[in-house]
Amino acid sequence: MKTATFYSYLPKRYTANDAHTERVRRFIYSFKRGDRHAVDFAINIVSECLNKWYGASNQDYVLVCIPAATSAKYNRRFKRFAEEVSKRTGIQNGTAHVNIFGIREAKHNNAAHIVSESYGYHVSTDPDFFAGKNVILFDDLITTGATAEEFAEELAAVDANVIGGLFLARTKLIRNL
Known about the structure:
With 177 residues, this protein is an alpha/beta fold. The chain contains five helices and seven strands, in the order βααβαβββαβαβ. The strands form two sheets. The protein has a five-stranded parallel β-sheet. Strands 4-5 form a two-stranded antiparallel sheet. α5 links the parallel β6 and β7.
């Protein structure tokens, strides 16, 4: 899957040696919490990007946010974001057509950066809405891309065409040599 990002993100387990790295880190955590200033900034950069790339043809695409750990987190993080990006660009908002049940426990603290599913976690997509649509995925962070690929497969199963993903930041993977 094609992906695009705005920033590089250094996880907190590593020391940030410069102000820019620390600003990106604070921005990502603020966005995850749903802080208005961070969500507004994300709305601006994503809307500008989509308008630059697709212009008037934005209406031919659907923006859908990758499911979060719970429905409450998904709505807090993405509801206003997706609605406002849709208003500013004309892109269709697919976020309301994703339902999350249960809780996904994030386990990024392992060498493979695997996220485990637990507590009856299940994501349901609306096949009537997504069938035949060209979809752009969105999330705050991409590390390995496994979560995005898995969600893209779920959308493909309801006949959506996922053309790529747009992420606020890509996690820098630092390997100990």
